[in-house]
Amino acid sequence: MKGGKSKADTKGDGRLAVKKGAAAKKGKPAKDPNKPKRPPSAFFVFMEDFRVQYKQKHPNNKSVAIVGKAGGEKWKSLSDADKAPYVQKAEKRKVEYEKTMTAYNKKLAGGPEEEPEEESDKSKSEVNDEDDDDDDSGEEDEDDD
């Protein structure tokens, strides 16, 4: 076909179709479950305390949305001085997060070799345990040398 376009690339009205699915997902790498979670902002630190207080005052309330709206309104009404303790807690958590992220990134880059050696020792012992079971046949002794 001329122009490098096939019928599959165009819609019935002549517009180009946008491919979705596998092509769109290729750009995003898989999530690592061991990656540290980002620290909460000052507002979410405030909400941790606010939820407890709100549940004490309104024990029959089951709606998360109502608690969130009430917390948002309360946060907006607080002065900067009232928000300061929550901002400080959030900053502390952010510093701790940055430390854990640097350690995590070093681990990904193969930083300290002590941890991988421990893991390899564990795997060696597991392999040796399996070899002990197979030694009765006498075939494994030739491969170990």
Summarize this entry quickly.
By secondary structure, the protein is mostly helical. Helices cover about 60% and strands about 0% of the residues. The longest helix has 30 residues, at about 80-110.
Would you write up a description of this structure?
The protein has 145 residues and is mostly helical. The chain has a domain at 36-109: DNA Binding (I), subunit A (Orthogonal Bundle). 62% of the residues lie in helices and 0% in strands. The protein contains 6 helices and no strands. The protein has helices at 22-25, 42-57, 64-77, 80-109, 114-134, 140-144. α2 (42-57) packs across α3 (64-77) and α2 crosses α4 (80-109). It is extended. The protein starts with 21 loop residues before the first helix and ends with a helix. 4% of the residues are buried. Mean pLDDT is 76; it is low at 112-123.
What key phrases describe this protein's structure?
DNA Binding (I), subunit A; 145 residues; extended; mainly alpha
What's the total helix number? 6
CATH class descriptor of the domain at 36-109: Mainly Alpha
The CATH architecture of the domain at 36-109 can be named as Orthogonal Bundle
Question: Total number of β-strand segments?
Answer: 0
Radius of gyration: 29 Å
Question: What would CATH call the homologous superfamily of the domain at 36-109?
Answer: High mobility group box domain
Average pLDDT level: 76
Q: How does the helix and strand content classify structurally?
A: mainly alpha
* Helix share, percent: 55-70%
Tell me the β content: under 5%
Elements, N to C (H/E): HHHHHH
Q: Categorize the overall geometry.
A: extended
CATH topology group of the domain at 36-109: DNA Binding (I), subunit A
Unreliable stretches: 112-123
* Major beta sheet summary: none
